[in-house]
Automatic annotation (TrEMBL):
Recorded GO MF terms: phosphoglycerate mutase activity
Family assignment from sequence similarity: Belongs to the phosphoglycerate mutase family. BPG-dependent PGAM subfamily.
Organism from which the protein derives: Saccharopolyspora rectivirgula
Ligand binding (substrate): 10-17, 60
GO-annotated biological processes: glycolytic process
Keywords from the named record: Glycolysis, Isomerase
Active-site residues from the entry: 11, 84
EC number from the UniProt entry: 5.4.2.11
Lineage, opening ranks: Bacteria, Bacillati, Actinomycetota, Actinomycetes, Pseudonocardiales
Protein name as catalogued: phosphoglycerate mutase (2,3-diphosphoglycerate-dependent)
PANTHER family referenced in this protein's UniProt entry, alphabetically: PHOSPHOGLYCERATE MUTASE
Signal peptide region: none
């Protein structure tokens, strides 16, 4: 079996997103706006007719995926490998606080996917654990897989699956709350992943 399509769906807005604080592995909840984002996006995401739904075990992803389950009945499989990047000592801090404590480090982290914050993991490391999930699904399904996860992980996983060299990873823009990325396999590409949509979403 081989997957034909992969949909990577970011969770809705959280209180930390709203406050501009770094979450990483912190288990934050959706705001009311985030819950509404999930409800609006779910019918559109459902049109991809996923055969399997795999979700990060962090609450913000689970609560977003629940909006899709309510429509489709598709039950999520939880996988901690889909957690957001562990950002070590930066977790819970604002960007300004990180800059104060580690001048210039935020820019380094954004520009170099091999660099990790103190006590945390790099985006390359995140992509390697996430791609394991995709490879396992590839052996089990032949249609569409939907992963409900986190912005940093989605960027890293997309770059990894597209085979981008590390120096080009920063060229991928961010993925907004409750937006998604779609990768497909086309005939004649040697079963390689091709980007079909990036940061797609529902008009608010």
């Amino acid at each position: 079996m081989t997957l034909e399509r992969l949909v990577l769906w970011r969770h809705g807005e959280t209180s930390y997103n709203l406050a501009g604080r770094i979450q990483g592995h912190l288990d934050t909840e959706l705001t009311e706006a985030g819950q509404e984002q999930a409800r609006k996006a779910a019918p559109v995401v459902a049109e991809y007719a996923p055969d399997v739904l795999v979700c990060s075990d962090l609450r913000r992803a689970q609560d977003t995926a629940a909006a899709l389950t309510e429509i489709t009945g598709l039950q999520p499989r939880l996988d901690k490998r889909l957690r957001e990047t562990h950002l070590g000592e930066w977790q819970g801090l604002s960007g300004a606080e990180v800059e104060m404590g580690w001048p210039g480090a935020m820019l380094t982290w954004r520009q170099n996917p091999e660099w990790a914050p103190p006590g945390g993991e790099s985006r390359v490391e995140v992509s390697e654990r996430a791609v394991e999930v995709v490879e396992e699904l590839d052996q089990q399904y032949s249609g569409t897989a939907l992963l409900c996860a986190h912005g940093g992980l989605i960027i890293g996983l997309t770059a990894k699956l597209l085979g981008l060299p590390h120096e080009l990873w920063p060229s991928l823009g961010g993925v907004a709350n409750c937006h998604w990325v779609v990768l497909i396999r086309r005939a004649g590409t040697g079963r390689k992943w091709v980007l079909n949509a990036y940061n797609a979403g529902v008009q608010s």
